[in-house]
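Q: Given only this backbone (333 positions), what sequence would you predict?
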């Protein structure tokens, strides 16, 4: 169902609603260069303590309109309890990773399939959103057959390199201060604490921290073993980007470990750092939110997607971005 249409930076943006199998309603913002939105579909997935606006910030230079201008049909959902989706976050609301993986993500896959029958699709995700997207594909592997590839921005599964910064932020801030405030409020007041751009469900935060702190990659609700199921799958190509200044949530060692955990596949890891094609050392959030990202590394993402779609039979080649000096790729390792 379409709610409203508006233009952002010359790109057509349509607000849609999708119903999940368990009856919740997800808000999806679609970006396209034309009203037909016939270009190859992309699904952009937000992470913990944020919503879909991470991909279309108010300055208008976000990843969603950037990729729409390149000819893609870009779908940006708010997961349940986030943004304009239902149920709206309120004290005591329980949202689990299982609900996102088994209900929200499949509904979004169905949306892409229904709107773009026969077309390959690609997924892009930030932080824990990449872990949820990956888990949903492991659990519903039929959607992998038509996947052109996955792009992860600062996504990790578990921490492999200890540091005092991680102990300070994860152990003291998230598991200490934030958890105590959450018990009082009945939800994670991430916005007030400066720990996110959207408040969060206590249960969803606890679920995510269990995995991010090295807990077994098993579903905390029904025990499904994602690591075991992954071993039987042929994983699609992946582009893994993280900022040089992101030493906690998307540390380079952790991002590399996540790529390795997904098994043998075509994986490219890119570190966004000053002096290697980037104007700055990017952190966890500004690699999507900073206006300079549209010059520094969004063209790299666009070119990678173009190459992956060109490998899929029946998908026409998209316009190649110009290769000016300031658009060159950042450090690859």
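A: Predicted residues:
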């Amino acid at each position: 169902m379409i709610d409203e249409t508006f233009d952002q930076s010359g790109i057509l943006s349509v607000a849609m609603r999708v119903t999940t199998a368990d009856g919740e309603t997800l808000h999806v913002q679609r970006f396209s260069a034309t009203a037909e939105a016939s270009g190859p579909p992309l699904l952009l997935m937000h992470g913990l303590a944020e919503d879909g606006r991470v991909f279309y910030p108010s300055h208008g230079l976000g990843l969603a309109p950037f990729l729409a201008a390149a000819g893609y049909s870009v779908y940006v959902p708010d997961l349940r309890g986030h943004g304009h989706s239902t149920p709206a976050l309120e004290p005591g609301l329980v949202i689990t990773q299982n609900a996102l993986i088994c209900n929200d993500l499949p509904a979004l896959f169905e949306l892409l399939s229904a709107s773009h029958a026969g077309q390959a699709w690609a997924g892009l995700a930030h932080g824990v959103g990449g872990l949820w997207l990956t888990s949903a594909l492991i659990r519903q592997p039929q959607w992998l057959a038509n996947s052109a590839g996955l792009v992860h921005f600062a996504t990790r599964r578990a921490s492999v390199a200890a540091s005092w910064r991680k102990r300070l932020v994860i152990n003291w801030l998230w598991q200490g201060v934030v958890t105590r405030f959450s018990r009082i409020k009945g939800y994670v007041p991430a916005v007030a604490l400066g720990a996110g751009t959207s408040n969060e469900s206590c249960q969803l935060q606890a679920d995510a921290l269990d995995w991010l702190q090295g807990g077994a990659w098993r579903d905390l609700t029904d025990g499904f073993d994602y690591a075991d199921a992954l071993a039987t799958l042929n994983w699609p190509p992946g582009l893994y980007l993280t900022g040089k200044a992101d030493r906690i949530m998307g540390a380079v060692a952790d991002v590399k470990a996540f790529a390795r955990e997904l098994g043998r596949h075509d994986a490219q890891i890119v570190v966004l750092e000053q002096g290697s094609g980037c104007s700055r050392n990017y952190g966890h959030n500004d690699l999507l939110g900073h206006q300079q990202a549209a010059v520094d590394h969004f063209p790299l993402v666009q070119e990678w997607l173009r190459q992956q779609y060109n490998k899929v039979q029946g998908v026409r080649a998209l316009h190649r971005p110009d290769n000016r000096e300031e658009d060159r790729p950042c450090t690859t390792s």
